[in-house]
């Protein structure tokens, strides 16, 4: 296996990742480190979003320390100006602008409340490949607050594995969504060339505290579907209804779109939100569910960051190299089937890109 170079991302780059939420990007400079790359986002006068490498070509000063003037970023050190396409438009004190003065620009697509960017080869950036969360975030069928970006001091892989293995909710989320049935129910895991899918179904299951307060039901018929697909996309779909229900109108659907983006090898941004398809006009309910969901997310944040601190203290290097977890430092149990499939998939994609940068998803099978 090829060893990663210093500051080289442990994740495949030729995919769309979320760089920011729509409401974050305005007429100011937003700095963010994503897949080990410093990037600055801003909104042009016409409303479109630009993303540049957050480095001036002159002395490597962060452009985000400068100013946005019109549609150009002016470096705060020596005043070089850069357009949204990365071209250098002016250097104070000289008329000639050398071609080497330009900086990298990133393909950007704004869709479904997310600002997606392409960190890999820009010639491969096909907008048709932008992950589709439109039914949940843009169709009007569901309602919820857009995600608030959360920086987690743990590898992005920890978040993907956390969502793919929901058996932990029984123990980690006892005050919010946890129920005893989840941990003891073996999921169905389907691995295809396009996604990892984890499914659990119950004809009768107890209701977690948050949902009990929401629906007033002690027991429900319940289903969970968790999907993962590269770059770092996850989606949780939940359907609940009264036990023995025959009325389709009583089925309540909850959706958690949860794309996440690596920042460094040991940090990531989590962009998760909770949406529902009932009581769409109840703003108080939206606010209450947002707070309950945030509490659950923060419970996971504590666990993931503790996990990373312990791995660092124990000298475990598995995450750094993205090798299967059985290679050292921890053991695997039955519920790790889906998380390990996702881990190995990302590993294959990353290794394939290093050997053939034009690699596409369909060319790397699940094996």
Can you tell me about this structure?
- The protein is α+β, with helices and mostly antiparallel strands and 367 residues long.
- The chain is 23% helix and 26% strand.
- The strands form 5 sheets. It has a 6-stranded antiparallel sheet. A 4-stranded antiparallel sheet has the order 5-6-7-8, with no helix packed on it. Strands 1-10-9 form a 3-stranded antiparallel sheet, with no helix packed on it.
- Strand 7 and strand 8 form a beta hairpin.
- Helix 2 (156-164) packs antiparallel against helix 8 (337-355).
- The longest helix is centred in the last third of the chain and has 32 residues, at 283-314.
Q: For the residues shown, what is the average pLDDT?
A: 90
In which order are the strands of the major sheet placed?
12-13-14-15-16-19
- End-to-end Cα distance, whole Å, is 17 Å
Put simply, the count of helices is: 8
Parts with pLDDT < 50 across at least 5 consecutive residues = 1-7, 318-327
Radius of gyration: 22 Å
* CA-based shape: globular
Task: Please indicate the percent range of residues in DSSP E strands (runs of 2 or more).
Answer: 25-35%
> Which series of helices and strands comes N to C?
EEEEEEEEEEHEHHHEEHEEEEEEHHH
Structural class of the secondary elements?
A: alpha+beta
Number of strands: 19
Question: Helix coverage percent of residues?
Answer: 10-25%
Question: In this structure, how is the largest beta sheet organized?
Answer: 6 strands, antiparallel
């Amino acid at each position: 296996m090829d060893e990663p170079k210093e500051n080289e991302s442990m994740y495949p780059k030729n995919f769309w990742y979320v760089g920011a939420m729509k409401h974050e990007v305005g007429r100011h400079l937003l700095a963010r480190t994503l897949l080990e790359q410093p990037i600055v986002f801003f909104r042009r006068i016409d409303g479109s979003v630009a993303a540049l490498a957050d480095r001036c070509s002159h002395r490597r000063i962060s452009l985000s320390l400068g100013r946005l003037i019109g549609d150009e970023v002016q470096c705060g050190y020596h005043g070089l100006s850069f357009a949204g396409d990365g071209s250098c438009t002016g250097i104070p004190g000289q008329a000639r602008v050398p071609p080497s003065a330009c900086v990298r620009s990133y393909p950007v697509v704004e869709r479904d409340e997310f600002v997606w960017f392409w960190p890999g080869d820009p010639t491969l950036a096909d907008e048709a490949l932008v992950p589709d969360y439109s039914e949940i975030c843009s169709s009007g069928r569901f309602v919820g607050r857009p995600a608030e970006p959360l920086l987690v001091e743990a590898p992005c892989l920890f978040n993907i594995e956390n969502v793919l293995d929901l058996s932990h909710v029984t123990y980690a989320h006892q005050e919010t969504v946890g129920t005893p049935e989840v941990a003891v129910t073996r999921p169905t895991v389907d691995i295809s060339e396009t996604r990892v899918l984890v499914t659990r179904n119950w004809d009768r299951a107890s209701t977690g505290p948050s949902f009990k307060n929401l629906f007033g039901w002690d027991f429900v018929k319940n289903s969970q579907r968790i999907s993962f697909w590269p770059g770092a996309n996850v989606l949780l779909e939940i359907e609940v209804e009264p036990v023995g229900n025959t009325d389709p109108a009583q089925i309540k659907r909850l959706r958690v779109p949860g794309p996440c983006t690596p920042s460094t090898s040991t940090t990531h941004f989590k962009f998760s939100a909770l949406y529902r398809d009932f009581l769409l006009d109840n703003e108080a309910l939206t606010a209450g569910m947002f707070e309950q969901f945030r509490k659950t997310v923060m419970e996971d944040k504590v666990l993931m960051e503790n996990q990373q601190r312990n791995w660092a203290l124990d000298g475990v290097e598995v995450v750094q190299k993205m090798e299967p977890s059985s290679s050292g430092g921890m053991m695997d149990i039955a519920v790790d089937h889906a998380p390990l499939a996702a881990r190995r998939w990302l590993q294959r994609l990353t290794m394939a890109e290093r050997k053939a940068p034009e690699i596409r998803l369909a060319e790397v099978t699940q094996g």
